[in-house]
Design brief:
α4 runs parallel beside α5 and α7 packs across α11. The longest helix has 33 residues. Helices cover 52% and strands 12% of the residues. β4, α4 and β5 form a beta-alpha-beta unit. Bound molecules: 1,4-dihydronicotinamide adenine dinucleotide and 3-(4-hydroxy-phenyl)pyruvic acid. The site of 3-(4-hydroxy-phenyl)pyruvic acid (ENO) has 8 residues, from loops.
């Protein structure tokens, strides 16, 4: 595999930043990896884990880097750019991994200097774990990486920058697609954001009920509920930022979800077995399609216990 970058910088060394660092090294996508995190404890841990050159100053951390990957929560992207932008080299490519695209695009296009290329992105790969210890090199293997290139950027060189970001993710094992940011946010509201909201809600509700049922909820957790608790264990800061920044699309999809849920409620109340059966049957077929599309292939240590 060809070495595709001489020097990259990763800002934010959590699950995603640490996974990119490990994967870039393991698959030869970068020669030198410079890392920065606003939290000094995370920087100390990243040094212990030997993830690359951990640098205490954000401007120095991006200096001379051809590619800068922003791996902080969506609500911290602007702050991260403000802290490092003076250090960006002319012609550098800046990309991000935020789970929401439109809000990040509008926040960062205003902030970034005109002499860099911004190529927004989002890996559809992750786990419920966070922090540098959670990162692993195979996280992106055979997963989708969505790029949402800026339609308004018609500078010569922008297209080549997008291609280079694509090549980087392919080197990490991902399949790459391009999409417009608005479409991305609607699709992700359906396949990721709403499912997480439902999981947070059902688990928090069960926790409320637990005071009534005296720990029976935990004791008798069936596997369906356990699956929800895995998703609900995801980082609260990250998910708060997702919902604050993908407000419109999530509210739209949530409205539809609530209507359909009310229809189910009515079917149960009035004993409409056919309505229930038809919906469950459709849902079951969807599972088959998802498996056939290969999006359920677990990473080697997927879902491992922390
Ligand atoms: N966790 C997941 O499964 C996935 C997360 N994402 C996206 O990736 C991004 C990072 O998520 P994770 O790695 O899971 O989070 P994480 O919580 O594991 O790591 C985030 C890191 O960013 C650091 N940070 C926060 N503000 C900062 C700032 N201003 N400057 C520098 N560092 C700062 C934190 O100290 C923390 O170490 C988020 O935007 C998230 O939406 C994308 C795909 C999957
Ligand atoms: O752990 C899971 O089930 C996930 O869904 C991981 C995930 C979380 C957030 C993203 O933006 C993309 C992937």
């Amino acid at each position: 595999m060809a070495m595709i970058y001489d020097r990259i910088a990763i800002i934010g060394i959590g699950l995603i930043g640490a996974s990119i660092a490990r994967a870039a090294r393991e698959f030869g996508a970068a020669n030198t990896i410079q890392l920065y995190d606003a939290n000094p404890d995370v920087r100390a841990r990243a040094r212990e884990l030997d993830l690359g050159e951990v640098i205490d100053d954000p401007e120095e951390a991006v200096a001379k880097a051809e590619l800068v990957v922003l791996c902080v929560p969506v609500g911290a992207m602007a702050e991260a750019v403000t802290a490092c932008k003076q250090g960006l080299k002319i012609g550098a490519i800046v990309t991000d991994v935020g789970s929401v695209k439109q809000a990040v695009v509008s926040a960062l296009t205003e902030l970034l200097p005109t002499y860099v290329y911004f190529v927004p992105g989002h890996p559809l790969a992750g786990t419920e774990h966070s922090g540098p210890d959670a990162g692993f090199a195979s996280l992106f293997h055979n997963r989708w990486q969505i790029l949402t290139p800026l339609p308004g950027d018609e500078r010569e060189g922008y297209g080549a920058a997008v291609d280079q970001v694509e090549e980087f993710w392919r080197a990490l094992g991902a399949n790459v697609d391009r999409m417009d940011p608005e479409r991305h946010d609607v699709v992700l509201a359906v396949v990721s954001h709403l499912p997480h909201l439902i999981a947070f809600n059902i688990v928090a509700m069960a926790e409320d009920l637990e005071s009534v049922t005296e720990s029976e909820v935990v004791k008798y957790s069936a596997s369906g509920f356990r699956d929800f608790t895995r998703i609900a264990a995801s980082d609260p800061t990250m998910w708060r930022d997702v919902f604050l920044n993908n407000r419109e699309a999530v509210l739209e999809v949530l409205g539809r979800f609530s209507e359909d849920l009310a229809a189910l409620q009515r079917a149960i109340r009035w004993g409409e077995g056919d309505t229930l059966y038809d919906l469950f049957d459709r849902a079951r077929r969807m599972r088959r399609e998802v498996i056939e599309a290969g999006q359920d292939t677990p990473a080697p240590n997927w879902g491992r216990e922390n």
